[in-house]
Amino acid sequence: MKARDNPYRSERVEALAFRAEDFDWKNLEARLAAAKGRGAIVGPEGHGKTTLLLEWYARRTDAVLLRVKEGQRRLTSEQRGEIGKSRHLFLDSAEQFGWWGWRELRWLSRRARSVVITSHRPGLLPTVFTCRTSAILLGELMEELTGRIDEHATLCLWQQHKGNVRLALRDLYDAQAGIAGNPAHYWWQFLSARESKASMRWNWDDAFSSVSARWPIWSEFPFRLSWRRRD
């Protein structure tokens, strides 16, 4: 499959709206106001923090968005100049900053009406939202992108990546592209065969033996790699 036809290509994944159980913009704004305009979106990698931050930023006028690179310990000179230009500051990956970098950011943004950051850990600013994922959430995203879903396979994929939806969707991109070597590739083969008009018979006894050796959680997958047509 060509990259432009892959339902899990980056532009489609990045266009997915943030979603979470009991999420509400009004409540989120109320939490930020209660924290005197200083708040953090907290959660592990791949749990939707950046997606929520970008949507929040888009809802603001007179706002600036700063993105911190991995290993960046302080603001760049360009970022320092951007901070004072807007009333609202949104900063992604604040956990990358060292002690001095964080103190510098707090000082430079002291006059901002609001400051919202994302961080893998709590404690930098009052937590206004904690991002969590679930197999159900992953399934909803997959269904929106492809129109189909397998609940058991989705659960296995979500557990394999410990809730990191970004990595799970990346695996599914590889599966659609026909890149072998990850369990999602074999799962997609199964779905495609099951939905095909051709009658297939699966050999259930030694399904995924090689994959299960490397990824034990996939040993419960309800299908096998090899199949043949029923005569």
Which band does the percent of strand residues land in? Answer: 5-15%
Termini separation: 29 Å
Strand order of the largest sheet: 2-3-4-1-5
Elements, N to C (H/E): HHEHEHEHEEHHHHEHE
Give me the Rg, rounded. Answer: 22 Å
In which range does the helix fraction lie? Answer: 40-55%
> Which secondary-structure class do the elements indicate?
alpha/beta
Quantity of strands, as a count? 7
Low-confidence stretches: 195-211, 221-231
- What profile does the largest beta sheet have? 5 strands, parallel
Average predicted confidence as pLDDT = 83
Q: What is the global morphology? A: elongated
Please report the number of helical segments.
10
Question: Can you tell me about this structure?
Answer:
With 231 residues, the protein is an alpha/beta fold. It has helices spanning 10-14, 25-34, 49-58, 77-83, 99-108, 135-146, 151-160, 165-177, 183-195, 209-214, and strands at 38-42, 63-67, 88-92, 114-119, 127-130, 200-202, 227-229. The strands form two sheets. Strands 2-3-4-1-5 form a five-stranded parallel β-sheet, sandwiched between helices. α6 packs across α7 and α8 (165-177) crosses α9 (183-195). The protein starts with 9 loop residues before the first helix and ends with a strand. The model is unreliable at 195-211 and 221-231 (pLDDT under 50).
